[in-house]
């Protein structure tokens, strides 16, 4: 299972490829989805992502804005 999380910031974008856990919730009759993702800390985390594209095995599963980001 290959995951790629492309995070778009005000200054560009970066890709995270090591996903520890993800939960994607999509209602059948609604056009939007909700993504909860846990990834290991990276040096990129000084920038807050504005939009995220999440792909699994080359298939785009989520493309949307970031409502909340937590860094630990």
Write the layout of secondary structure elements.
Elements: E1 3-9, E2 12-16, E3 21-26, E4 33-38, E5 51-56, E6 59-65
Antiparallel strand pairs: 1-2, 1-5, 3-4, 5-6
What does this structure look like?
- By secondary structure, this protein is mainly beta.
- The protein has one domain (3-65).
- It has no helices and six strands.
- A hairpin with a 2-residue loop joins strand 1 (3-9) and strand 2.
- It is globular.
Which percent band covers the strand fraction? over 45%
Helicity range: under 10%
Give the spatial strand order of the biggest sheet.
Answer: 2-1-5-6
String of helices and strands: EEEEEE
State the low-pLDDT regions, or none: none
Largest sheet: 4 strands, antiparallel
Overall, the morphology is: globular
Structural class: mainly beta
Oligomerization: single chain
Gyration radius, in Å: 12 Å
Whole-number tally of structural domains = 1
Helices, by number, come to 0
Provide keyphrases for this structure:
72 residues; mainly beta; 0% helix; globular
How would you briefly describe this protein structure?
The protein is mainly β and about 70 residues long. It has one domain. The protein has strands at about 5-10, 10-15, 20-25, 35-40, 50-55, 60-65.
